[in-house]
Amino acid sequence: MTVTDPTPSGHVIGDRVVLEAEHVTMRFGGLTAVGDVSMKVHDGEIVGLIGPNGAGKTTFFNCLTGMYVPTEGRVTLGGEQLPPKPLKVVRAGMARTFQNIRLFGNMTALENVMVGRYCRTSSMALTSILRGPKFRREEEATRLRAQELLDYVGLGKSTEILARNLPYGDQRRLEIARALATDPQILLLDEPTAGMNPKETEETMHLIFKIRDSGLAVVVIEHDMRFIFNLCDRVLCLVRGEVLVEGSPGEVQSDPRVIEAYIGGDDTDEDEEESA
Amino acid sequence: MELAQQLVNGLTLGSLYALIAVGYTVVYGIIQLINFAHGEIFMVGAFGALSTALLFFRSYVDGGEMLPFWALPVLIVGAVAASVAIAVLMERIAYRPLRNAPRLAPLITAIGISVFLQEAVRLLYGKIPSFPDAKQKVPFPQIEVVSGPAFNLGGVTLQRSTIFTVGALVICAAGLFYFVSRTKTGRAMQAVSQDPDTARLMGINVDRIIVVAFVIGATLAAVAGIAQGLQVTNINFKMGFLAGLKAFTAAVLGGIGNVWGAVIGGLTLGLVEALAVQFIPGTFGGSPWKDVWAFALLILVLVFRPQGLLGAKVVDRA
Q1: Does A97 contact chain B (CB < 8 Å)?
Q2: Start-to-end C-alpha separation, chain A
Q3: What residues of B are in contact with residue A142 (Cβ under 8 Å)?
Q4: Alpha helices, DSSP H only, in chain A?
Q5: What is the ipTM, given to two decimal places?
Q6: How many CB atoms are closer than 10 A to CB B231?
Q7: Residues of chain B positioned with their CB less than 8 A from the CB of A82
Q8: What is the pLDDT of residue A263?
Q9: Domain count of the fold of chain A
Q10: Which residues of chain B are at the A interface, by a Cβ-Cβ cutoff of 8 Å?
């Protein structure tokens, strides 16, 4: 891994492309939610996706994770083309969180993380019923790893609390822990600080830096501009499904077209799920 | 004394309903499908046990003797194998292609499969060499220890098959509890029932979990098939219809989607039927009216507690 340019935070970005989206297009009937979006993410890089409501950010995430099959274009992870099957995408090493929190509400924090871990364990239904030594070892390892991850995101004391009873900010962090449990190479965060107070937002930023420093690539969707410009190495601004501007936070921040897109009076609220 | 007797009867009937009801509720909990062919899975289980007896214990059957006790596990394995095979095939051939179809399509398919399985057994069972014709009732083999003279506990008659049925429910419920809450696949099942899309994104193979749900339901239904065979000493191709309907009622009564609800609902329904037969006087009493009271109970529960006894309020997922 050779060193390219140091980022403002003093961190170095590798030159290995972890995730590459090439000309991804997603149409729903006559509506083009995502139009010809290309994006490269290197290891150790944090890429931000911004854009007004309905710009197609979440739809783009859904294309990356195999929830939608893109109408056109392809997605590669570590050089391998991803099949549009969420199950296989996760195994290949991509994990995500959700804009509207989607935890398993009636399971404890620990169980949520353990479920995320299962795609990396091998025991099948029958062995787990028979409870052989291999199963017990694996189950124990899963539990330990889940506890570690809860500690890592700062939820070490909330292990046995049902996910739906956790405070909002903790639920967002639990989603991150659950995503990390799948051993990803790249983490996609969909509005990780939505609804958080400034202190929680600050903590989340440090958590994301910590995750990046552990060697993961991160892609973040966020509306909080201060957060995104402080966090990211590179920012893409999507408007009406297309990349309007791509560049360093400084470049994007000062680009008149971005300001226009945000405060200009254009009606872009076409994509319903973005405003959900 | 009459009360104690009816409680025993109700418990027996209720355990049978509960064993079948779990199959409705587990499948519903995962894919929101009411598998109306589940009653036939129960019937197939009973015929699976009968076939096993005919294949491996022919001399006992022909001689009219009771099968030795160790034949019971063999019959259970045969029944479970038959039920599970049919349930898995049904899921693979009929339900999986309809996974994304409107909900009415798999429901009607389920009714179709139900009729198909009944008729298949009726017409084809006797065509298998040396197997009896199944167009009428077929005697079910009796087994030492679990068949035979009833016990009398101070005036209360306790059939041996009652002990088998209630015991089977206790063991199955304990096993199910352990499986769902303590194993990897069980937790994955909980995750899928709460949010299948997210579960998929966490790397859970949802298709496999659905198959597991069908297998669990079929296993318990097969055990219930044997219990029914031992209780009434004969089986027939349409035994799954009413039993399935009652078990479905039990599942709804308890709160469909909730495994413990199915158990509680089954036992409640069985007890209400038994008590209604004995204690409602006059024209409206007696066994001809028991189904009326059973379904009246269902209506009452649904009016005052639409989510069932243990069910959580269903929030429609977007």
Answers
A1: no
A2: 41
A3: 184
A4: 57-64, 86-92, 109-117, 125-130, 133-153, 168-180, 198-213, 225-231, 249-254, 256-263
A5: 0.74
A6: 18
A7: none
A8: 72
A9: 2
A10: 179, 183-188, 190-191, 194-195, 197-206, 212
Shortest CA distance from A91: residue in chain B: B203
In this prediction, residue A131 carries a pLDDT of 63
Structural domain includes residue A1: no
- Please judge whether B184 and A128 are an interchain contact, meaning their C-beta atoms are less than 8 angstroms apart: yes
Give the phi and the psi of residue A52 in degrees, each rounded to 5.
-65, 165
In this complex, do A118 and B179 lie within 8 Å of one another by their Cβ atoms?
Answer: no
What pLDDT, in 10s, does the model give residues B97-126? 998 899 899 999 999 999 999 999 999 999
B61 pLDDT above the threshold of 80: yes
Q: A145: domain range?
A: 107-171
Q: Is A102 on the interface with B (CB under 8 A)?
A: yes
**Residue A263 sits in the same domain as residue A128:** no
Query: In whole angstroms, what is the distance from residue A234 CA to residue A259 CA?
Result: 17
Q: Measured in whole angstroms, how far is the alpha carbon of residue B295 from the centre of its chain?
A: 18
Looking at the structure, tell me whether residues A88 and A148 fall in a common domain: no
Amino acid at B101: A
Q: Does A12 touch chain B (CB under 8 A)?
A: no
Q: How far apart are CA A254 and CA A184, in angstroms?
A: 33
A106 vs B185, B194, B203: nearest CB? B194
Do the Cβ atoms of A118 and B184 come within 8 Å? yes
Pick out chain A residues at pLDDT < 70.
1-10, 123-132, 264-276
Interface check for A141 against chain B (CB to CB < 8 A): the answer is no
A162 in B contact zone (CB under 8 Å): no
* Cβ <8 Å between A87 and B203: yes
How sure is the predictor about B311, in pLDDT bands with cuts at 50, 70 and 90? confident
- pTM here is 0.84
Average pLDDT value over all residues in chain B = 91
- Amino acid letter for position B157: T
Domain B2-304 has CATH 1.10.10: no
Nearest-CB residue to A115 (from B179, B191, B205): B191
Is A142's CB within 8 Å of B183's CB?
no
The answer to whether B261 and B251 are in contact (CB under 8 A) is: yes
CB < 8 Å to B204, chain A: 87, 115, 118-119
Chain B residue with minimum CA distance to A116: B202
Tokens of B22: 């779990």
Structure tokens given for A98: 């959700």
Per residue in B124-173, pLDDT (tens digit) is 999 998 899 988 999 999 998 888 888 888 888 899 999 999 999 999 99
Is residue A177 a part of any domain in this protein? no
Instruction: Band the pLDDT of B318: cuts 50, 70, 90.
Output: very low
Q: What is the DSSP letter of A93?
A: T
Nearest-angstrom CA–CA distance, B146 and B163? 8
Whether residue A197 is found in the same domain as residue A268: yes
Residue B275 confidence (pLDDT) above 70: yes
Is A123's CB within 8 Å of B184's CB? yes
The tens digit of pLDDT for each residue in B12-34 reads 999 999 999 999 999 999 998 99
